[in-house]
Amino acid sequence: MSIRELRPSDVSYVDEFLPLSRLTDEAGEAGEASTYMVAWDGREPVGHAHIAWAGTHLAIPEIQDVFVLPERRRQGIASRLTQAAEVEARKRGWDSISLSVSQERNEVARRLYAKLGYVEAPTDPVSVSGVIILRGQPVEVDDTLMYLTKRL
Question: How far is CA 28 from CA 7, 23, 93, 127, 148, in A?
């Protein structure tokens, strides 16, 4: 298993396996505003984590859209992707990182992030409702997100 930043030359191939719903241009790069980290098992992409560098809720890098293929879950891939995002943030000079998780749903993710050292940010939860694009598909949501942070 290896994890590396998504390369423009890999976008078409990775997109056959994983939903790259946060890409912002035809070249497959979100530019300086964000980065995709991709987990590879040999030549097969098995998961990704998106890192937003700017325009985030807490004004620090935010890990978004951690995704692992369903058949590869519970193998530590999400943990390794999260840790790779933390390393990338540290390399870029940041001393903390954030992410959001459903306040009332997705207990598995909340346990994972607690295990990795994330704590609740000193900010109010954010209500999200309406249609959003999630994993490339429109989804009706009505949820409350809590933000978590970690010192790097």
Answer: 8, 6, 25, 30, 28
User: Tell me: the pLDDT tens digits for 44-60?
Assistant: 999 999 999 999 999 99
pTM of the shown model: 0.86
Q: What is the DSSP string of 89-105?
A: HHHTT-SEEEEEEESSS
Single-letter amino acid code for the residue at 122: P
How many independent structural domains does the chain possess? 1
Buried b (16+ CB within 10 A) or exposed e, 117-129: ebeebeeebeeee
Separation between Cα atoms, residue 116 and residue 149, nearest integer Å: 11
Domain that holds residue 40: 2-151
pLDDT tens track for 90-110:
999 999 999 999 988 889 899
* Distance (Å, whole) CA 149 – CA 97: 6
Write the CATH number for 7: 3.40.630.30
